[in-house]
Design a protein that fits this description.
Layout (H helix, E strand, L loop, with lengths): L8 H40 L1 H4 L11 H41 L10
């Protein structure tokens, strides 16, 4: 006797919205963390902590560190955050697509890919 791991249409109907909720919850978590990092670097280091950071100089340039964060650091951080978002969401999108494909093919969503 072999057990068939397929799911019914009713199970699929209930599982797809749950899959979509998980995807958007993950997306919002990623965006929230990245925005918090950007706010800390842009507002925290560039404005609120600038006086303390200005006591130190950016190595090799002589610029005050707080000034550098206000002028360049927040922009560089933003570019790195966009890159991180793209890389993270590509992985999340791939997992979400695989899970939806398994659901629509009638296989349980609990079978995770090894990626």
């Amino acid at each position: 006797m072999s057990s068939d791991p397929t799911i019914t249409a009713t199970d699929r109907h209930e599982a797809e919205p749950a899959c979509l909720r998980r995807y958007w919850r993950t997306n919002l978590a990623v965006v929230s963390v990245l925005l918090a990092i950007w706010a800390f670097v842009g507002l925290g280091c560039g404005v609120l902590l600038a006086d303390r950071l200005n006591e130190h100089r950016l190595p090799g340039t002589g610029y005050p560190l707080g000034f550098w964060f206000a002028q360049q650091g927040s922009i560089a951080t933003f570019v790195l955050i966009v890159l991180a978002y793209c890389l993270i969401m590509n992985r999340v999108d791939r997992r979400h697509h695989d899970e939806l494909s398994r659901l629509r093919a009638g296989h349980p969503a609990s079978e995770r890919s090894s990626r």
